[in-house]
Amino acid sequence: MNDRATPRWSLILSIAAGSVSAAASVVGLLAPSLVYGRETEALQLAAAAQDWVGLVVACPLVLVLAVRRPVRGSTPHLVWLGGLAFLAYNAAIYCTAVRFGPLFVPWVAVLGTAVWAFVGGWVEHGRALVRRRALGWATVVVAAVFGGLWLTEIVGDLAAGRGSTSAGTWDVPTNPVHVLDLALFLPAAAASGVLLLRGRPVGHVAAPVAVVWMALTCVPIVVTPVVATVWGVTAPWAVVPPVGGLLLVLCLLGVRAVRPGRHDGGTTEAGDTADRDELVS
Q1: How many C-beta atoms lie closer than 10 Å to residue 276's C-beta?
Q2: Which neighbouring-strand residues pair with 258?
Q3: pLDDT for 105-153, tens place per residue?
Q4: Does this model's pTM top 0.70?
């Protein structure tokens, strides 16, 4: 088998993750009282937005790209990895924030299969050629901004001697988004940007994946006010301009950064190095 082909077992796991996640989203949307009936209105809105984005965007993206069997290091492969990161991230939030119920086992299954599919599909030595500077700085800056926002809330709540403000709106002990972002995803995104700026091969893969994940996580935030409006409740439209603007910037940077047509396996290591040097600016 071509050593640049994505492992078959990783593709099978990703198809399982996308399929189960899509099915869970359908159940959540068709029977919200069964799945989210014991949650606060804020969490129900967030979950509905996540379900719509998962069903319409993330799951089809992962499934279609998995069926295409993307070549490692190619643009479809990087987008596929970013989609898997999004599925794992959402499943982890569902598993920890939503009360135990009929979708607990499917969410755990999505978390496990998405993580292991990601591990199997990861490129140890990056082969993707991307424009370093803008994409690298974007991952570092966005990670720093969100990390600062989360820490501002956390420190403020601790100083005031109260529970987590954002966790309170969901009626959960702690905010799982803060846990996942501060412990894993934001440090990984920032590190990927630094590695890309320094020209390390792994950064050429990690940074585009981080940008795909960041862009996908912005979509449910933008969709939430739409769901709230449909439900006839107060819609948080104020978040749409900044998050929507960030989503647009990330998409533009991602499209511009990854060079298409360079992943046919015919380039030499020296040629790849020369191309990377050419893309520093």
Answers
A1: 18
A2: 130
A3: 999 999 999 999 999 888 644 455 566 778 889 999 999 999 999 999 9
A4: yes
